[in-house]
Amino acid sequence: MTTGWTQEWPYHVFTDPAFVLSLLLDPDEPLDQVCNCDAFLDIPGEGRWTATIFSVDEVRRLLDRWRITGESSYFTGVDNVIVREPGIDSIATAVRELVEDGSYDLVLVKCDDDDSPDPLETLAEFAEMPGAEITDEHVRWAIYQHAIQNPEVHRELRIAVTKEPVHSLAAAVVTALFDHVPPSDRPSWIRALPRRMRGFPTRRAEEMAVVEAHISGPPPIDISTWSDWLLRRVAESTATEATLTKLTTEARTKRSRNLATQRLTTLRQPPS
């Protein structure tokens, strides 16, 4: 690792005379293998920008997985930056070039200014709740629920999640958001949470990948370890008779078996 890096939890920070780069990383990830992370770029007197950084191999890995699951045949994103090699030094080099040629203002997303309002206040106004008592966590949850369903305020929502004082509430927001963002965005939302709160959202993201993988295609080999939520979601979403048949006989809960039976009956009905 080159000089200039410091660890300022939860970030690894690279300080350059022209800018400060902060990367939100998993504490267990080797620094020379970082291939998918959120980045914040601060330029003195200019403000802050944000981006999600991917390596070429990580993009290829995601596309290969999506080809199998049928999720997507392309890769896109508003604030994505793709670098040739993994590792934080490779990321710092790319960001330095963006700053030196001035293209950061076109490629990255401006996320705040010194005089910008609190992101939660912005979300409250968007939810038509101006002046809401945002010190009340129940009020904040109502504001978050509105924002979750509206991608145009997801940037503000991400900042609010990183600042949410009730960590269990932040985890609930991230988990609820998974139905409203592309699969490639889920890891970056999980990384916005404190490390100790990432367990359940990580498991739920993995389960959602299983759901998406079984919308079509061959049935799963083993469902004995599936959670009740996963059993129900696959039963609700799959369009494959073989998968539904397996659920009607092997699902652990009566509710899941009945749901699969109902879906199977519906699929087998001739069109009217």
Number of helices: 12
Structural class by sheet pairing and helices: alpha+beta
Listing every helix as H and every strand as E from the N terminus to the C terminus, the arrangement reads EEEEEHEHHEHHHHHHHHH
Tally of discrete structural domains: 3
Overall shape: globular
Question: Could you characterize the architecture of this molecule?
Answer:
The protein has 272 residues and is α+β, with helices and mostly antiparallel strands. The chain has twelve helices and seven strands. The chain has helices at 56-69, 88-100, 104-107, 119-126, 137-148, 154-163, 167-177, 186-191, 199-213, 228-237, 241-250, 254-268, and strands spanning 5-8, 11-16, 19-24, 36-43, 47-55, 80-83, 109-112. Strands 1, 2, 3, 4, 5, 6 and 7 form a seven-stranded mixed β-sheet that branches. The longest helix is centred in the last third of the chain and has 15 residues, at 199-213. It is globular and about 65 Å long.
Helices, strands, pairings?
Layout (H helix, E strand, L loop, with lengths): L4 E4 L2 E6 L2 E6 L11 E8 L3 E9 H14 L10 E4 L4 H13 L3 H4 L1 E4 L6 H8 L10 H12 L5 H10 L3 H11 L8 H6 L7 H15 L14 H10 L3 H10 L3 H15 L4
Parallel strand pairs: 5-6
Antiparallel strand pairs: 1-2, 2-3, 3-4, 4-5, 5-7
Note the main attributes of this structure.
alpha+beta; globular; 272 residues
Brief account:
With 272 residues, this protein is α+β, with helices and mostly antiparallel strands. It has 12 helices and 7 strands.
